What we know:
Chain A is an alpha+beta fold. Chain A has helices at 4-26, 87-90, 121-124; strands at 33-39, 42-48, 56-61, 66-72, 75-81, 100-103, 108-114.
Amino acid sequence: MFSRYDFIIWIIIVSLAAGGLLYYQNYAPGGETLVNISVNGEKFESIPLTVSNGNLRREIEGSNGLTVVEIKDRRVRVISSACPDKICIHSGWIDRPGQMLVCLPNRVVVKIESNEQQDIDFYTN
Amino acid sequence: MSGKTTKLVYLALLITFAVVIHTIESSLVFLIPIPVPGARLGLANIITLLALMLYGFRSGMLVSVMRSFMGFLIVGNVVSFSLSLSGAVFSTAVMGLAFIFYKKKWINILTVSVLGAVSHNVAQIVMASFVVSQFHLITFYLPLLLLLAVPTGVFTGLSAMYLHKVIMKNVTVNHSLSQFRKI
């Protein structure tokens, strides 16, 4: 049933996926880690994610209403949001650079970035 | 019934099934590991693949596009509509292309389905990053979605395969019935 073309295609898909996953698992960022909050594509606030920065709360006015973001113990989560499906709240805590919380109805994006990742070449290689 | 009317009725039924799967699927969001509302697993591709197998590329495209429109009227908003339409059109195009190779017996139907699932997820994530204008979404979630596309594609392919078998059986039954009535 399965020809060699099948195997080639499947192996390409799985290895691409596994390679990508491993790449992000093993990528240990250096430098400062920042929590970038943006509304409607525009930058709202950028908070350094450090241990000393414990228990912070930010209220962000989105296009639907308020979104409340909590930063605690070097992790970030959305506590409450004025969106119908609450997917951003169910996403829970995030703590790694590259992870993000997106509230699409409210147009609020919370993203963890490290200083090293600001280089655009990182994403194009 | 003439062949044309039979095709019309069957296509209408296929679109109905696709809309039902689409609607059920939108309540399965907790299965998808991307935080974008409106993203789907692509289970409605079962019906698209079935239409592709039964009536060819144009009917497959018709079923998937109509399914997106009807799904938009039943569940969802503009964002989820744009995601589902881009996923539907792109995956149907890729599956239609892969189906040519399937007919030549170069690849399996499961591979056609997996390619459809992969392209469905890729189109969705690209569209989602355009909507939020956050292109980091692509690099971060694409590997995960590629991996997720394999079980989804296998499931979709197996379902379409067995449904096709059942339908081919029943089409002959219908045919003999209509012959019977004529006599």
